[in-house]
Amino acid sequence: MGADARPQLRMTHGRQVEYGLGVYSGKLGMWVFLCSEVMFFTALIGAYIILRWGSSQSWPDPTKVLNITLTAFNTFLLICSSVSMVKAYAAISHGDQRGLRLWLLATVAGGAAFVGVQVYEYLHLIHDGVLPSGFREGGEIMEALTRAGLPTGGHELFGAAFFTMTGFHGFHVSCGVLCMIWVTIKAFRGHYTQAHHEGIEVIGLYWHFVDLVWIILFTIVYLF
Amino acid sequence: MTTVEKKHPPYMLVWLWLAVLTIIEVWAAQAGLTRRILIPILILLAIWKASLVAIYFMHLKFEPRRFLFVVLAPLPLAVILVVAVLQEWGK
After folding, report:
1. Are the beta carbons of A85 and A204 closer than 8 angstroms?
2. Which structural domain range is residue B76 located in?
3. CA–CA distance, A96 with A98 (Å, rounded to integer)
């Protein structure tokens, strides 16, 4: 087949899309990475299911031990930062540089606030005696369980599972915030244009994935 | 060569849905429902919310169909992984 007979290449975000899948290679690379992340978090969730419902160890009611209202607010923060991310993407795809910068700043603020609230939550839990190794003797949680006549022993799995799952997610959000700060700096330097803004889309995919994972984790770890 | 202009979905409407579904989730978890009723409701709401994020925020609705096969490939693998892990049940 001669070169003239080949199908015409489309352009998205200033990049030629690949022939095979119809997306540019940066986006495909991020999606492949996210596929591996799906398997990582699935393994954590599978382990959680086994530890919680497959073992004989007592498991406290998360809604009694964890601060659901605070975490629901945190979930809302992450959802808001996801919206600000897509608004940043929509802004630059219309050539709106000011909108891009403002929405990116809002995304960084939302992500940083999420991590801040999670650190605050951890500090309070540890203060109340909820540790990765179980509940501390004499801690506020232990006393509350005793007063309510609930089992006070054998909560090691709860502590380990809770801090592992939320900790790994928090690590992902922290990495996302750092990447987002870098992208925001580049945006302020005028790096992205209406024709070339694939970096915004690619980092946005990661950010939304982190939001999506939190939606699942919040339900399983905090509400079940 | 032509430049493809992307249409943007109503992001604020999706945000509103996500906020409302989160409120319903938290309310359901604290409403004292039996676990047999509560857990299916929470799973349904979580899948609903995650789908909204994937379809609209991650733009899966607007991607080429053949690309979706790559993106959705880990889902059956994830199910297999969970089933494999569940073999440890009760051991």
Report:
1. yes
2. 11-89
3. 6
Each residue's pLDDT tens digit, B66-82 = 888 888 888 898 889 88
Nearest to A75 among B8, B22, B39 (CB): B22
* CATH assignment of the domain containing A136: 1.20.120.80
* B5 in a structural domain: no
A1 is a domain residue: no
ipTM of the complex: 0.87
Confidence (pLDDT) at A4: 43
Kindly identify which residue of chain A lies nearest to residue B90, measuring between CA atoms: A54
Contacts of A218 in chain B (CB under 8 A): 25, 46
pLDDT in tens, A96-116: 999 999 999 999 999 999 999
B25–A223 CB contact, under 8 Å: yes
Which of B1, B5, B84 is opposite residue A8, by nearest beta carbon? Answer: B1
B63 class by beta-carbon count within 10 Å (0-12 exposed, 13-18 middle, 19+ buried):
middle
